[in-house]
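Retro notes
What went well: the complex prediction finally ran end to end.
Inputs used:
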Amino acid sequence: MKDRRLLASFVVLLALACVPAVLRDTFLLRVATEAIMWVGLAVAFDVLAGYTGYLNFGHGAFFGIGAYTTAILMVRAGWPFVPAAAAGGVVAAVAAVIAGLPTLRLRGAYFAIATWALSRGIQQLALMMPATGGPDGMRLPPFLHPQFFYYAMLGVVGATFLLLWFLLERAPFGLKLKAIREDEQGAKALGLNPTLLKIQAFVLSAVPTGVIGGVFAYWVTFIDPASTLGDLVSDQALVMVVFGGMGTLIGPVVGAILIFAFKTIFWAYLAEYEVLYVIILGAAIALSVVFLPNGVLGARLRRGAPRPLPVPVTPAAAGAGKLEA
Amino acid sequence: MELLPQALMDGVMLGAIYIIIAVAFSLVYGVMHVIDFAVGEWIMFGAFAGFYLNRATGMDPFLLLPAVFVVFAVLGYLLQPVIQRVLSGKKGNPLLMGLVFTFGLSLMFRGLAQTFFGFYSLSIPSRFSTGSFFFEKGSFFLTVSHVRLAGLVYAIAITVGLQYLLKHTDFGLGVRALAQHKDAAGLMGVNNRRTSAFVYAIYVGVSAMTGVLIGTILAVSAKMAPEYTIFTFFVVVLAGMGYLAGVPAAAFLLGIIQSLFLIYLDPGYTLLAVFGVLYLILLVSPTGLFRKGV
């Protein structure tokens, strides 16, 4: 059963690899590339949100860190693309360790707050620093080769997906993360080191996000704080994962494709109503939490397939338990 | 150096405003175990309500405070059952979902505000806006505008009021019991749903009311919300989540950092400085300044 799935994912990857041969239209190829990008961002987001039970409201910060690292190394230091994008992943990992160290020792609420604040801080930093070009953004050397970027994105996202599939669904690592999600104290009692595991999960989520950011920067050739560090990246990744279904690998993929399809259609016809898009995004998040707590996929796979267990709400689990005045 | 007393005084007056929001926010966290990402949006909506009410009626914003409180408390009371439903869901991870839900709300509110309120920065005129007291001693001097002083008085009144509510009423006892142990409180006859709804109503009302004050003293704009969300988080985390006694110190610290940056350094770096302080304190003492958080 499981190996059939692996086979299926290889078939899908192979089919996706043939797409540029069939799809001659550059615009459609561009759309396909971006769809794959969002799949990668959503899956990476789910490592923390779905598997570990920690919400990263600053996912976009790691995307932006990757994009800016790549851009700065290519433009100001003259690095070639591949090592620059890899460096984007490394810097994202370092940022994850720095941000995770104080916050992942605590319950989830702190982490959600800290990552959200971090993304704001990074935005501010990018606006101020001379190396990033401030609000004017940065221009990268143009490389107009849509097929190259399609394969680069597919390679990064495909490798990420397979790596995450192996680590989270096959290796004990995934079980350890789930143990933390279900009961952190219990996981500790079993001899696991929750802080270390959470930081590992955070890095595992940040690295592909950073690399994808790097590919994105070189692909679109122009980045500024609004496009790469704005809230839209985090918000969209969040809605994709929540809508698709947390805690599985396939849920975010489905969510990413559905939401991205909606986004593409919306921007094609209603591009001037950017704010309306934000309203719809927010409403979609709130409504799917109320009506589809397990996402569209969770709602469909109610029987049979493994899905996240309910977590009992106890004051200890909630991390509160007192209100001293 | 001559400006130091001014910086400290401004910081204290700003900090007093943060105290109210942070206390109400902590109450919600204590009782419902949810972090409300929409706190800045409630402040913003309150500020705009004050702005439009003032324009329509010409009444002083300080007189409008009770009306704004009532309207927003009712809104909060009506919204709370939806959050409660998310939090008490059997599927998925309800606490996580609570966070996601308020985050979605904040996004939606921000979008709505930008649609309806535009992008301009406004301020609410008050009859206190113009006057100020002036003190001078040697080379030190201090200007205290009437409106900031009124804000300080308001902040103290609300804080004392909340403290009284929490410590000296049956309702407050119920709130504290719920924060301590939900099931046991239920067995002692505390109505969880109703108490939570009232706490949330008070929180939304107080946040909106404080928004009017911020609109009078500082400014109102559709872009103001995230900044105040961050300030609230800063104060609450620094104080130690759920530790109300730590709130004033954290709030004054934030106010003073802000005013020092405004007077001595580049105000553009204020947010970064706030993050820096928050990061260092979390690194050294993850449960807040007093190690009393959870």
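What we learned: DSSP finds eleven helices and two strands in chain B.
What to try next: split runs per interface for comparison.
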